[in-house]
Design brief:
7 strands, alpha+beta, single chain
């Protein structure tokens, strides 16, 4: 499991910079981010080196955030690996709520949230997919 921060930010100048500045001042390294916006606010999802401490830093600054667990798998860095992995979940009727991906060293990384974590865990184990936890991801990032 990976710990992910979901940070709610207003769609106005300076709010994203404020969050990033807090990370900088706290010396928390960001590994990956994604930003989804709506009319009035955005959801800034962050995977970082110290998610629990980052959550407290944000909370102390009055920024609304949640700390959730998401799933992560490592794939070979070749075309089509993400499609093959998602095909396995789709064949079992697992819905992916959201997903983001990136490359670290020679690995592709998929971070995702499903509608059924327990079934997804079983599928991952049955198909011998490589799961990542916070420590694994940090080791890849260094």
């Amino acid at each position: 499991m990976i710990h992910q921060l979901s940070i709610f930010i207003q769609n106005k100048a300076g709010t994203l910079e404020k969050v990033l500045r807090l990370f900088k001042l706290s010396e928390i390294q960001i590994i990956t981010t994604t930003l989804a916006d709506t009319q009035d606010f955005g959801i800034f999802r962050v995977i970082c080196t110290e998610p629990e401490r980052a959550y407290l830093v944000l909370k102390d600054a009055g920024i609304t955030a949640t700390l959730t667990q998401v799933q992560a798998i490592a794939l070979m860095n070749t075309p089509g690996q993400a499609a093959d992995a998602l095909e396995i979940f789709a064949a079992d009727g697992i819905e992916i709520s959201y997903l983001y991906s990136f490359l670290l060293k020679d690995k592709g990384v998929l971070i995702f949230k499903t509608d059924n974590k327990e079934r997804a865990d079983k599928i991952i184990a049955d198909h011998r997919l490589t799961t990542l936890n916070d420590c694994d991801l940090l080791q890849l990032a260094l």
